[in-house]
């Protein structure tokens, strides 16, 4: 499935650990719950960028579309949850997003560039995980995750293109910095399962 998105595969530093895939299969209720949270957070991130950077025309255009799509995905996940009797509950945040965001530089435009690069990694990893999970899930859930791949892949490209547009310099070094950080966060063990967690560790 991911063969249709070679740029995304090249962008990510590693495949998801097999142990994470098995963990997800064993925790599908939690998978759906956290997935819903992820879609809502993604919409919120896009809206936050629109409020903060009102003078960036291309950002406003792309983030407006992205926010609408993420909210639609949230509605779709929530509908699946209701159909399956899965309660939508509060969850603690995974260390993935916080682990990336604590390295955001505080001056502009570096702050915006780092935020956009992180957004690209989040979207790319989401796409990769939906693709590797789809063959292991029931038909309805598998079909739903496959349907998300195209938009998630486009979101990754939008974030990366915006980062380059507003950087005023090459972003290769910064992308490489966050790629290594992402690899660590994805491969190091976690005690709580999340869509973006590492493999299971020891409680």
TrEMBL record:
Pfam families: MiaE. It comes from the Bacteria. InterPro entries: Ferritin-like (IPR012347), Ferritin-like_SF (IPR009078), tRNA-Hydrxlase_MiaE (IPR010386). GO terms for molecular function: tRNA 2-(methylsulfanyl)-N(6)-isopentenyladenosine(37) hydroxylase activity. GO terms for biological process: tRNA modification. PANTHER family: TRNA 2-(METHYLSULFANYL)-N(6)-ISOPENTENYLADENOSINE(37) HYDROXYLASE, TRNA-(MS[2]IO[6]A)-HYDROXYLASE. This is tRNA-(Ms[2]io[6]A)-hydroxylase.
């Amino acid at each position: 499935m991911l063969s249709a998105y070679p740029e995304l595969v090249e962008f990510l530093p590693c495949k998801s650990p097999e142990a994470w895939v098995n963990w997800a299969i064993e925790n599908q209720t939690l998978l759906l719950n956290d997935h819903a949270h992820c879609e809502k957070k993604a919409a919120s991130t896009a809206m936050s960028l629109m409020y903060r950077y009102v003078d960036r025309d291309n950002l406003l255009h792309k983030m407006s579309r992205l926010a609408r799509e993420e909210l639609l995905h949230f509605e779709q996940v929530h509908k699946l949850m209701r159909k399956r009797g899965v309660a939508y509950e509060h969850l603690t945040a995974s260390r993935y997003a916080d682990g990336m965001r604590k390295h955001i530089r505080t001056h502009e435009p570096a702050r915006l560039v780092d935020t956009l690069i992180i957004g690209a990694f989040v979207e790319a990893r989401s796409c990769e995980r939906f693709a590797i999970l789809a063959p292991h899930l029931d038909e309805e859930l598998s079909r739903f995750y496959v349907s998300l791949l195209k938009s998630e892949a486009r979101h990754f490209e939008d974030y990366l293109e915006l980062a380059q547009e507003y950087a005023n310099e090459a972003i290769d070094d910064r992308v490489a910095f966050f790629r290594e950080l992402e690899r660590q966060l994805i491969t190091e063990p976690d005690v709580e399962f999340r869509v973006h967690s590492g493999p299971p560790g020891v409680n």
